[in-house]
């Protein structure tokens, strides 16, 4: 059974600690740290800031790094800079930031397409040529922390090493996570069009200010009860898919659905919300969903589930890049796997992997 090959002989899912750990999920080998963004408490408009956070893999201490403009997905480029999607907030533009993690200086890699501000950059990956590829859904608009979209489309963009920004794919409802296959001949992009993104953790309290303003979609986890609040923010007819493209240089073609994602167990609604996505060196695909990390074969066959309720994103860490850290907005989990992450060229060079 291929899923047992992924898990290894003695699979163990470990709860590390409670923490405000939402998106991102980036291993920085120089300091043995794992970087991520905190969740946005949208029930307190104009909103608590989304912070850049980190965890020491040795001590497991979680600490604050810096305030951000609604940071979300992130990755490392091939020279060790942290590349962060900042969604923007109100009048502040969304952008792709590059941060030197040794001195914490930052530069803007991109903040517009043809002079138009991005919607709300969501997730990002860096190719071996150091080009930056990112998704730009309109969550900032549908979640009401930004004004109307000036672009009017939800697209995937590529930023060349000289800063040229080009749209490489459109036609999405909500493009979200993205990852390259090991040989970079394929690009996987999730579409979470089923929800405007009000996936959060709260208690069942109808006096909650946001619940008075918006009957949004909430997962009430652990001490609470799963509840679907219906006001059109969850539409099962919209995409809940992993798409895949052929890649030739900077060109994407032959778009098709790799897998449609559903919740595999429990009392949550049956339609999935595939968020963050990663790939291992054998071409298997991992996506974060409400019920945990779903694992697919290179041909799109569902292999199994690593059960972490409310999973948002994940990342590979360690000298062999075989340990997965999973975040679900309120806690951090870890699982040792019998695989190695694809990509992550900076970490592989640091640890002298071929």
Summarize, please.
By secondary structure, the chain is mainly beta. 6% of the residues lie in helices and 39% in strands. The chain has a four-stranded antiparallel β-sheet, with no helix packed on it. A four-stranded antiparallel β-sheet has the order 2-3-4-5, with no helix packed on it.
Structure keywords:
single chain; SMP-30/Gluconolactonase/LRE-like region domain-containing protein; Neuraminidase; four-stranded antiparallel sheet; 39% strand; mainly beta; 6-blade_b-propeller_TolB-like; 354 residues; Oryzine_lactonohydrolase
Rg calculated over all Cα atoms: 19 Å
What is the approximate shape?
Answer: globular
Strand content: 35-45%
The CATH topology label is Neuraminidase
Task: Determine the fraction of residues in helical runs and give it as a percent range.
Answer: under 10%
Q: Which CATH architecture would you pick?
A: 6 Propeller
Could you walk me through the main structural features you see in this protein, from its secondary elements to its overall organization?
The protein is mainly β and 354 residues long. 6% of the residues lie in helices and 39% in strands. It has a single domain (2-194, 239-350), classed as Neuraminidase (6 Propeller), CATH 2.120.10.30. The protein contains 4 helices and 26 strands. A 4-stranded antiparallel beta sheet has the order 1-26-25-24, with no helix packed on it. Strand 22 (292-296) and strand 23 (302-307) form a beta hairpin. It is globular. The model is unreliable at 42-46 and 198-232 (pLDDT under 50).
